[in-house]
Amino acid sequence: MKAGYLVVAGAVAALQAAQPAFAASCGGWSAKMEEDEGGSVLTASVCGGPKGDAHLMLACFDTPVLSYDLGTAGQQPESGASGAFDFKADGKTVTKTLQLEEMYGYFTVDLAKVDPLLDLLRSKGDVSVSSAKYGASSFPLKGSSGAIGKVLAQCGKAKPAGDGD
């Protein structure tokens, strides 16, 4: 019986290790290269939420893309889900509709390079992200201005085809 338990526990640990690694400290934002299906992408990220496993991530492809991983405390979204999320910080609220990115299991929204949500995320204190259906999580904004600035500086600087080969 114990051997079966160890196999299951080992499988769970392997499954968790296979999840995308966004190794931000819950103490604040960081900007670093993360692997994406198209290669390495500079990503600003932070963790938070009730269990510290929810994430906000900002990357730039053609435009900035904000991703929100609910973590294990959040309700598991159904296929094709979308929802209105309120981002609140520093006495201001910005509401965005986020769409579920099914491959990764988190919500995303495309942003303009100059967007009220990016300004809000570069303020001080904490940001709460809430939705009537998916609950709320809070994230520290410490270091967000620098980390987001690094990502936005890379926006639109697409590499020419074949670069780095």
Account of the 3D structure:
By secondary structure, the chain is of the alpha+beta class. The chain is built from three helices and nine strands, in the order αβββββββαββα. The chain has a nine-stranded antiparallel beta sheet. Strand 6 and strand 7 form a beta hairpin. The protein is globular, with a radius of gyration of 17 Å. The protein starts with a helix and ends in an 11-residue tail after the last helix. 27% of the residues are buried. The N terminus and C terminus are likely disordered.
Which descriptors apply to this entry?
165 residues; alpha+beta; disordered N terminus; nine-stranded antiparallel β-sheet; 3 helices; single chain; disordered C terminus
Query: Which range best describes the helical content: under 10%, 10-25%, 25-40%, 40-55%, 55-70% or over 70%?
Result: 10-25%
Give the terminus-to-terminus CA distance: 51 Å
- Global outline: globular
Q: What's the SSE pattern? A: HEEEEEEEHEEH
Low-confidence stretches: 1-25, 160-165
Strand content: 35-45%
This entry's quaternary arrangement is single chain
Largest sheet: 9 strands, antiparallel
User: How confident overall, as mean pLDDT?
Assistant: 82
* Total beta strands: 9
* Biggest β-sheet: strands ordered side by side in the sheet: 1-2-3-4-7-6-5-8-9
